[in-house]
Design goal:
The protein is an alpha/beta fold and 444 residues long. 25% of the residues lie in helices and 25% in strands. It has 3 domains: 36 residues; 204 residues, 3-Layer(aba) Sandwich (Rossmann fold), CATH 3.40.50; 169 residues, Ribosomal Protein S5, domain 2, CATH 3.30.230.10. The longest helix is centred in the middle third of the chain and has 18 residues. Bound molecules: thymidine-5'-diphosphate and magnesium ion (MG).
């Protein structure tokens, strides 16, 4: 094997240098040179050659799915994990990543032991958590180690059925000079870990701490290297935890698995709609929205609060909803139906800690805002969905029938939906609207 050395590679143009430079002499960008391991001949490290197989045989290779021990997570992943699948689980500190992975380690359906590499906590700390979670303790091998070369050795020696690395930011390779958690380290370690797991067919969960800015491990350097990215969301002081599939090479994205944090760790919530709308009071500003980005819809409550502004610059604050999208909705509300909010503070909240990014929520948010402003509640048995265009048109959205079926299942009798969908459902009254004005005339 060729000798491995270190080079500084420009992330913008690919220029290589033996010394670090603040500015790339080739493209002129600042701070783009990052330490990387290269082979002796100056080429970036290459992996072992892959196989060439007919497509039918490849499919067979990935058909055996292994259960994570959580039914809802298996479903979200497309039926469980696949041999050699590398899954990044990203989330803010304290959200429950270590808890979930320790529980998965114990319940994991694969034959043999699970290697749990803990770089953040000592063996005793992990054991204490295991005790709290009521784990039996003989299946999971805890390895408090941060030197990557040692970790590789143990994986080779033990040949475990699953590897967990908690967290990738604490692991470093001695081949690089930069410290653990730096872009170069995180990238090098993930790259080699992925290579190893693929070669051995071992599935692997990698924990990635999310920094304040919301990016994984410095920048989002890891996302393209792994097969699957799970986003762990929820409010720390709330019970609910949502694991969202944001990338998946072995299934569809947008799928969610809902959990509840209890005294004995995370429990799966198999009926998330019942949880998310369970505490709803039918007061002004509250609207039920059937959310979905994947195959499973969830009813969530969107709450808006519009009050007289306290300062000259009115506030726009959101939780679980994009604040820029809110500004856009407020502008459309003013232009199209004359709802003036420039002297008001506007708050929008998705109850329960789920974050809703799909534009299908626009119409529900708009109606919640009007409802709060006019102090008039929305009918209790109504759900609303539709995307808003800049000229106040209500645009069609995906999964209309699934959303309506979920609403019906939970006893909702009426729905305001985009007219373009031309949908009907037995036992529900459907109100198709093509503009914001039509929706407002219907309700207020
Ligand atoms: P943790 O898994 O350490 O979060 P992360 O690895 O994402 O940083 O756990 C986070 C929180 O969960 C912690 O504040 C305590 C709480 N918790 C429970 O409520 N119940 C439990 O059974 C456990 C183990 C933790
Ligand atoms: Mg942790």
């Amino acid at each position: 094997m060729a000798k491995r050395t270190v080079r500084y590679v420009c992330q913008s143009c690919g220029y290589q240098s033996v010394k670090w430079k603040g500015r790339c002499p080739s493209c002129g960008e600042w701070n783009t040179l990052v330490e990387e391991v290269v082979e002796g001949n100056g080429k970036l490290s290459t992996k072992t050659p892959s196989k060439v197989l007919p497509i039918g045989e490849w499919r067979e290779e990935t058909s055996g799915r292994i259960s994570t021990g959580f039914e809802n997570l298996d479903t979200a992943l497309g039926g469980g994990v696949v041999e050699g699948q590398v899954i990044l689980i990203a989330g803010e500190p304290g959200i429950g990543k270590s808890t979930l992975l320790l529980q998965i380690s114990e319940r994991f359906g694969g034959e043999g032991k699970v290697l749990y590499v803990s770089g953040e906590e000592s063996g005793t700390q992990v054991a204490l958590r295991g005790k709290r979670l009521g784990l039996s303790g003989d299946k999971v091998l805890v390895y408090p180690e941060t030197l990557f070369e040692n970790i590789i050795e143990e994986v080779n020696r033990l040949e475990p059925s699953l590897v967990v690395v908690d967290s990738i930011q604490t692991v470093y390779s001695e081949k690089l000079e930069s410290s653990a958690g730096s872009v170069s380290q995180v990238r090098e370690v993930t790259f080699r870990l992925t290579e190893l797991c693929k070669e051995k067919g071992i599935p692997c969960f990698i924990v990635g701490q999310v920094t304040k800015e919301g990016s994984i491990a410095g920048p989002k350097v890891l996302e393209h290297m792994v097969d699957t990215v799970l986003q762990f969301e929820g409010e720390r002081f709330n019970f609910y935890r949502v694991v969202k599939v944001v990338k998946n090479r072995f299934g569809s994205t947008g799928e969610v698995a809902v959990f509840r944090m209890g005294d004995a760790g995370l429990e799966e919530v198999l009926e998330p709609s019942a949880f998310f709308i369970g505490e709803r009071r039918n007061s002004p500003g509250s609207v039920v929205f059937p959310y979905t980005e994947g195959s499973k819809p969830i009813l969530v409550e969107i709450q808006a609060l519009v009050i007289q502004a306290l300062y000259t610059t009115p506030q726009r604050k959101t939780q679980g909803f994009d604040v820029n999208r809110l500004s856009l909705i407020l502008a459309v509300l003013e232009k199209e139906v004359g709802l003036f909010t420039r002297d008001s503070d506007v708050f929008v909240n998705v109850a329960g800690g789920l974050s809703v990014r799909e534009p299908a929520a626009d119409l529900a948010v708009a109606m919640a805002i009007i409802s709060s402003k006019k102090d008039t509640p929305i009918p209790e048995d109504l759900v609303i969905f539709g995307e808003l265009g800049l000229s106040g048109e209500v645009r069609a959205v995906h999964f209309g029938d699934m959303r309506l079926k979920e609403a019906k299942r939970f006893g909702f009798k009426r729905a305001i939906i985009p007219a373009k969908l031309e949908m009907e459902i037995e036992g529900m009254e459907i109100y198709p609207v093509s503009t914001l004005r039509e929706a407002v005339d219907l309700l207020f």
